[in-house]
Amino acid sequence: MNERSHVGEVLSCRDIHKSYGGLKVLRGVTLGVRRGEILGLTGANGAGKSTLIDVISGQTAYTSGEICIGGVPVSREGTALRAQLGLARSFQRPQVALELTLLDNIRVARAAAGLSSPYRILSAFVRGFVGPGDDDCAEIVRVCEQLSLRGLDRLAAEVTFGELRLLEFARALLLRPKVIVLDEPFSGVGDAGINGIIDALRALRAAGCAILLVDHNIDLLTPLVDRMALLAQGEIVVEGGVDACLESPVFRSTYIGVA
Amino acid sequence: MTSFAHAHADPRPNAVTGKRRLRTEALVTAAIGLGVVLFVGDSAYLQDLAILTIAYAFLGMGMYLPLALGGQLSLAYNAYFAIGAYSVAIMSGLATGPLQQLALWASIPAGVATAMATAAVLGFATRKLSGFHLAVATLMFGIAVHTFLVHSDSLTGGPTGLGGIPRLVLFGWELGRSELVTAGIVSIWVVATLIARFRVSLAGIALRVQREAPAAAAASGVPRTALKMYALVAGAAIASLAGILFALMNQFVLPESFGPKVVFLVLFMPILGGMSTPWGAVLGAVLVVYFTFGFDLFQGPGALTFGVLALLVLLLAPTGIIGLVGQFFGWTRRRLGLGGKGGGHE
Question: What is the pLDDT of residues A27-62, one digit of tens each?
């Protein structure tokens, strides 16, 4: 699997190993997502899906292997720099500042665009004292409206879990990512929100974004994704087209218990 | 308030980012500031209290920026206070005659710059620390600076301090105590207004999100270390203004004004006044001075009383006095059926 072509991959992980002490969580994961492609990654609880996402985004250090974002090796770079290179992600447990409004939580994506170099960080910091009103919230409102996320002036502490998921997704969208990694974006979200996310993902794919979609929900994944991969015990055991995956014995034994 | 009430309402970006609130706040505080200037007037006693309040307000606002927005408990504020004051005292003593005014004016930016440079070095040295460890390291630094002031006689005058700081002269107009009190109140208004604007700016939002949701901020590309460092440096610059004004007004500096004790008074100020606006720190400063000097009863154990008071506020009104007033207004408006969003959210 290591010899395949990585041409056109916006996100590529090669032979990623990760151990917690003696426990091997990831054992040589290799996967890539190309421009305008949705790769569905699935697997049982504890298969290493969330660890893989944390490794990709730089929140967790890994033992060995190589990760490239847009062709740039980022193994030694921090989370913020990977985001600046075009990687956006959501979290399994939404990470949100509860004391801030939904709008302000999403505005952080806008802020990040102006914080890409040491000089720009300083300049944004100084400009902050002079004028707060330099950003236009219309785009944020529009994106949230499409996801049926409303009432953006509420505090994040006052909204439902599903709305926090949508907030995270909106924040990731507004980073205008080249590659987006979503950790169970549908769980806890209502029907209108799920449809909003699916429409947004299709639009992102059409715009050339690479999407890694991690979820258990096969019914939601199969009509949406271009390829699928199954992670089991820290290894990619099946990878390929949706039909091929669904018919493979390993996949069937994992999901329906029959080989 | 339920989400249902919002279902039809278009989000109003202006209202959400709080631009209107900023304008109201600036106007109201400007009026209060003017009232305070008139109230203090020529009374030497009130001027003394005003000078102390102004110094504390700057220290409180300096701490507010990294603490309330960035979530960093840096306690080296007596050091920045001292750096501002001793810059004025030392530099004005370097020159005589007409050059002395030049040295005095130059000591103002020099004091701010020295405090900023110190904060940058200290911030870099402690960049891996947070919470309790950062607090202890910066507290030790403050104690070290205080010890240095007491023992380094040749530079700082040792325990007897430095005196003979001349009055500032602006185009032949000598700035006496009244003028300096006015200048101090105006500067507080300017600094608090700037911080309030920063709080809702994009950089301010990034700083606040990285405090509460560090993983989300980093994953959104927010460079946390750099932002926190700038917050510490900006806080030090604001705190140094306290020392500069203090030295210019009193015309002498004594090391005992800059002991670590002052840090704890200052730490309570934003908590007492309220963390949702820099004006909370200013209100806290007023209350500190009022409780330690205004009441005979509290004069002895002033700091102790104040500590108990801050504890009560933390327990009973975690949003501080300003937050409590906001909640009261929100409640009144709802009771009167005036509609609108309840106050006290922020």
Answer: 999 999 999 999 999 988 888 899 999 999 999 888
Instruction: Tell which of B19, B201, B211 to mutate to test the A interface (max A CBs under 10 Å).
Output: B201
CA distance A167 to chain B (A): 11
How many other CB atoms sit within 10 Å of the CB of residue B138? 25
Q: What is the mean pLDDT of chain A?
A: 88
d(CA B325, CA A214): 46
The residue of chain B with its CA nearest to that of A53 is: B219
What are the per-10-residue average pLDDT scores of chain B (346 residues)? 42 56 86 87 85 94 93 92 95 84 92 96 88 90 93 84 86 85 94 93 93 94 92 96 94 90 86 88 88 61 70 80 80 68 40
**Of B137 and A255, more confident:** B137
Q: Please give the Cα distance from B161 to B256 (Å, whole number).
A: 9
Buried/exposed B186-200: b ≥16 CB within 10 Å, e otherwise: ebbbebbbbbbbbbb
Amino acid sitting at position A215: D
Asked if A154 reaches chain B (Cβ–Cβ under 8 Å), the answer is yes
**pLDDT for position B130:** 79
Sign of the torsion angle spanned by Cα atoms B180, B181, B185, B188: positive
Rounded distance, CA B78 to CA B239, Å? 9
Place of tokens 């700081």: B165
- Chain B CB contacts of A81 under 8 Å are 221
Question: Which of B202, B222, B224 would you mutate first to test chain A, the one with the most A CBs within 10 A?
Answer: B202
Strand partners, A127: none
